[in-house]
Specification:
Layout: E1 12-15, E2 22-28, H1 33-41, H2 43-46, E3 53-56, E4 63-68, E5 73-83, E6 87-94, E7 104-112, E8 118-125, H3 131-161
Antiparallel strand pairs: 1-2, 2-8, 3-4, 4-5, 5-6, 6-7, 7-8
């Protein structure tokens, strides 16, 4: 699975990587790095494409809590790096995960495209070379491609309208 490309939108794809990390990219033409960054860091914008509820203390070591109450899902972590319009990094752990489940790390990079717009790169891991971790990795790839496709559709529609 590590070298297979999964796509939910022509503008979102998985980058082949080793099994210990996953890499997903998306291109957002016509959207600045700062504007795209806001969709990750402002709860009202984040809720439009990812969680149903979002609480954020946007500072290094600040906590976040994303929730999907209808599903009983709660994702929590802390911000480890914040550079507006350039990068965002945070830890990742589901409340439902067993106690000994390792904390994952997510790094989101916002890179200016030569032709305008932003390339978004998500790196998520690490994952062990076990069946359970590789199944979780596959689920995260599916989730990121789905939600980045949703973000792309949302922003593309707003860009065309506005």
């Amino acid at each position: 699975m590590s070298n297979q490309t999964i796509t939910s939108s022509p503008a979102v794809w998985q980058v082949p990587s080793e099994n210990d990390w996953l890499v997903v990219m998306g291109e957002f033409p016509g959207n600045s790095q700062a504007a795209l960054f806001d969709y990750w860091t402002q709860p009202d914008l984040l809720r439009r494409w990812w969680p149903q509820e979002a609480e954020m203390d946007l500072r290094v070591d600040g906590a976040y809590h994303l929730a999907w109450p209808g599903m009983g899902w709660h994702l929590r972590g802390h911000y480890t790096a914040i550079e507006r319009g350039k990068s965002l990094a945070f830890t990742w752990k589901w409340d439902s995960a067993p106690e000994l489940t390792p904390i994952r790390h997510v790094i989101v990079l916002f890179e200016k495209l030569a032709e305008g717009g932003t390339r978004l790169t998500i790196t998520h891991g690490p994952y062990a070379d076990t069946r359970e971790d590789q199944e979780e990795r596959a689920g995260h790839i599916e989730g990121w491609t789905h939600f980045l496709g949703k973000l792309h559709s949302l922003i593309s529609g707003e860009h065309e309208d506005g």
